[in-house]
Amino acid sequence: MIILGIDPGFAITGYGIVKYEGNKFSVIDYGAITTKASMQFSERLLLLNNRLENIIREFKPETAAIEELFFNKNAKTAITAAHGRGVALLAAARSGIEVFEYTPLQVKQAVVGYGRAEKSQIQQMVKVILNLPEIPRPDDVADALAVAICHGHSYKMGELGVRFNVKL
């Protein structure tokens, strides 16, 4: 199965394309989609949408896994990031692939085995699980790969009768 993992954002959206086969992960591609603060808000959203649609067309993932947002302090930051998340959900749903959503707690549990893991622990485990020479940067990219790993593990659970998805 080819999985597109997305760590949604507005200024930076991380993405990772992984293949999950026989309980083994391999990396196909990963990176960050960035938008400039000098761009108009609508242009930034359009750029994010176009880049995600291009990635989906190029790599043809079977599923998309997107991290749910978690903010507890700055409402303005949460709303801005939510716009990017909405664009990511829409781009994936428009492509016809199944969309799954995971909380940060679920991602940490699936990747590290501990729901309160530190960011550095997640990044190190992403590096190890995917056999990468270094931790992917920026952090959003490692997070997107972690979401894809989470889905690989969770999807296997779904085949056993436990479903975690939200299909659009």
What do you see in this structure?
The chain is an alpha/beta fold and 168 residues long. The chain has a single domain, classed as Nucleotidyltransferase, domain 5, CATH 3.30.420. The chain is built from five helices and five strands; from the N terminus they run βββαβαβααα. It has helices spanning 41-59, 75-94, 104-112, 119-129, 139-159; strands at residues 2-7, 12-21, 24-34, 63-67, 98-102. A five-stranded mixed beta sheet has the order 3-2-1-4-5. The longest helix is centred in the last third of the chain and has 21 residues, at 139-159. The radius of gyration is 15 Å and the shape is globular.
Secondary structure elements and their pairing?
Blueprint: E1 2-7, E2 12-21, E3 24-34, H1 41-59, E4 63-67, H2 75-94, E5 98-102, H3 104-112, H4 119-129, H5 139-159
Parallel strand pairs: 1-4, 4-5
Antiparallel strand pairs: 1-2, 2-3
Structure at a glance:
With 168 residues, the chain is an alpha/beta fold. It has five helices and five strands. Mean pLDDT is 89; it is low at 159-168.
